[in-house]
Amino acid sequence: MSTVLESYLAAATTLPGWFFRRSSAIWDCILSYQDGAKIGGHFLEVGVWRGKSALLSAMHAKRGELCLFVDPALHCRTEATLRAATEARCVFMREASVALHRSALMSSHARTFRWIHIDGEHSGTTVYDDMTIGCRLLGEQGVLILDDFFSPIWPQVTKAAFEFCMRHSNELALFLCGDNKGYFCRPRHMALYMNYIGGKMLLDMKARGDGDITICKTTVADDMNCFGIVSRFKGRDYVGPDWDKNTTPMPD
Fold first, then answer.
1. How far apart are CA 6 and CA 3, in angstroms?
2. H or E stretch including 178?
3. Could you tell me whether strands 227-231 and 173-178 are parallel, antiparallel, or unpaired per DSSP bridges?
């Protein structure tokens, strides 16, 4: 297990929230991969609440990077917890995410963020707006994560995400979904993450204590160029297309 994830799991035990063990392992894998690939940049969390997911990203942030936390109901204790967890500069906005549109950060830090987590207000309109903000801030090799993706409780979240990607297909594309979250990146840099997921990620998940998973890629790129991570399916590490179940799925 990575030292960051180990420290995070110990610190997050008492924090309320819905950021689950598998997501923390997925995040730690991808963030560690970014570190190894020398992908730097800032961090944004929209919808912080008590900081359960924000804490892990803050622990990965480095000196010289910025952690921007946006939530109209930010708790002072949460702010103290996040500041203590990182050497990065922390900025807290106690406003709705729409306030980012008038923030100077939108221009001064455009396309400089490597990690953006959207978990704010769940109406379709707000999700679309938050993805618009995220797309403006996301760096060339960064990752944007959308919470409650494919959740049957909030189907409008998934609808808004696909509408955004269809209208901005040259700016944002889905490359991974799993554990209630969708992971997006710049289409021209999808190979960075697709090669990692189809290659080393399973071993990295096992090293983090969550090897009870199956990595899926069940169709061709023209249909849907995206991996999925699910709980162990039929005892298999990988699941490919229905017409060729015995083939290990690889990036296209």
1. 5
2. strand 173-178
3. parallel
The segments of the chain whose pLDDT lies below 50 read none
Q: What is the C-alpha separation between 247 and 198, in angstroms, rounded?
A: 12
Contact 199, 249 (CB under 8 A): no
Is-above-0.85 flag for pTM?
yes
Rounded CA gap, 184 and 174, in Å? 4
- Do residues 231 and 200 make contact, with C-beta atoms less than 8 angstroms apart? no
The beta-carbon contacts of 73-82 under 8 Å, at least 24 apart in sequence, are 73/49, 74/48, 75/50, 78/48, 78/49, 78/50, 78/51, 78/54, 81/15, 81/51, 81/55, 82/51, 82/54, 82/55, 82/58
CATH architecture under which domain 3-10+20-211 falls: 3-Layer(aba) Sandwich (3.40)
b/e sequence 139-164, b meaning 16+ C-beta within 10 Å = bebbbbbbbbbbeeebebbbebbeeb
DSSP-assigned states of every residue in 179-246: TTEEEEE-GGGHHHHHHHHHHTHHHHHHHTT---EEEE--S-HHHH--EEEEE-BTTBSEE--GGGTT
Q: Where are the domains of the chain?
A: 3-10+20-211
Phi/psi for 148 (5° steps) reads 60, 30
Q: Encoding tokens for residue 122?
A: 């769940």
Q: What angle do CA 180, 220, 130 make, to 5 degrees?
A: 35
